[in-house]
Amino acid sequence: MHGTTTTQRRISPLIDPFARAITYLRVSVTDRCDFRCVYCMAENMTFLPKADLLTLEELDRLCSAFVDRGVRKLRLTGGEPLVRRGIMTLVASLSRHLKRGTLDELTLTTNGSQLAKYAAELAEHGIERVNVSLDTLDSDKFRDITRWGELDKVMAGIDAAQRAGLRVKINAVALKGVNEDEIPRLIEWAHGRGMDLTLIEVMPLGDVGEGRLDQYLPLSMVRAELAKRFTLDDIDYRTGGPARYVNVRETGGRLGFITPLTHNFCESCNRVRITCTGTLFMCLGQEDAADLRTPLRASEANDLLLAEIDRAIARKPKGHDFVIDRRHKRPALARHMSMTGG
Ligand code: SAM
Fold first, then answer.
1. CA angle 175, 176, 180 (to 5 degrees)
2. Of 260, 157, 246, nearest to 200 (Cα)?
3. pLDDT score of 126
4. Is 107 close to ligand 1, i.e. is its CB under 6 Å away?
5. Is the pTM of this model over 0.85?
6. Does residue 200's CB lie within 6 angstroms of at least one atom of ligand 1?
7. Is 122 in the pocket of ligand 1 (CB under 6 A)?
8. Residue 316: beta bridge partners?
9. Distance in angstroms (rounded) separating the CA atoms of residues 214 and 177
10. Where residue 246 falls among pLDDT bands split at 50, 70, 90?
11. Is the CB of 179 under 6 A from ligand 1?
């Protein structure tokens, strides 16, 4: 793996045109996944040829260049990050930035299917918390949503993560008529195990072969329903992500809401995303992107790469404008969430 040399280390932070410092990088390490969640992927997805993917060494070099420019938080995602072959080599290598104090957090978002295998190793490499995506506690429903997943495996993964001392946050996409009745149970279950729960609105990304309008459940409505049953106290707690949190008085746990549609959260955006082919997306909800793979491969030094990153950040847009309504049945963007990893 590439080391970070003093000449590569630049201290000038990445500041976008709206004076937002870019301190959070999300990296999709693969477009492949062992699940086929109905709101995320079509059942017959065509995946990228392996030759198009950045190697683990290239991913490390790219992440490290961002760390050198002031990124303090790195999140590995996918596809499913833990199905990328050799992923622990990348985690081990990136963990040097934690040891040096140049990175505050290295974390990942996972479907949990491989956590039983990797949790202990992740903890050894300085990972302190992981997000696990889980939309239901009912194994039949779980199979319907993920098409290919097994709830037992994910539960074993969560057990292993907690045993290894990792803090686990559960992310659940709120789906109309699918898990909306189950949300109180999810809250009680997650909080009962000492885990935060964050609810996410379905975002109109990629053609998944199912009507978005059928899946979309505004969290403003979920919150109103929950408020009949629980006491929800707004709190200032932030994790560097877009969730707004409440404390649930009855359970003593935290509940987050990620509401890209009912509440635009762009004004405090501190993040950018890289795909597994080295494409940099400056906004989850816009098409504009920068190819970082070409400058990365063109030279062993980072000058071309850093210049391209600077040009890209200089055009980071103010925000996105997702709309799901009867006039906008098509996806707002053609790419699937699995490309940028949420
Ligand atoms: N495989 C990993 C996982 O399951 O967490 C990481 C990638 S997955 C794309 C990241 C998150 O995006 C998951 O929580 C998933 O539920 C969510 N997601 C996928 N498609 C979505 C969509 N159209 N709208 C909202 N969330 C979505």
1. 75
2. 260
3. 98
4. no
5. yes
6. yes
7. no
8. none
9. 8
10. very high
11. no
Range from 84-88, 208-212, 258-262 that averages highest in pLDDT: 84-88
CB 40 less than 6 A from any atom of ligand 1: yes
Q: What is the reported pLDDT for 268? A: 84
- Best probe residue, ligand 1, of 173, 175, 323 (max atoms within 8 Å of C-beta): 173
pLDDT, averaged across the chain: 90
* Ligand 1 centre distance from Cα of residue 129 (Å): 17
The CB of 77 under 6 Å from ligand 1? The reply is: yes
Is 150's pLDDT higher than 50?
yes
Residue-wise pLDDT tens digits, 43-91: 888 999 988 999 999 999 999 999 999 999 999 999 999 999 999 999 9
112 lines ligand 1 (CB under 6 A): no
Residue 339 DSSP class: H
Q: Identity (one letter) of the amino acid at 131? A: N
Nearest CA among 216, 215, 253 for reference residue 233: 253
DSSP 133-183: E---S-HHHHHHHHSS--HHHHHHHHHHHHHTT-EEEEEEE-BTTTTGGGH
Question: Which residue's CA is the closest to the ligand 1 atom numbered 12?
Answer: 342
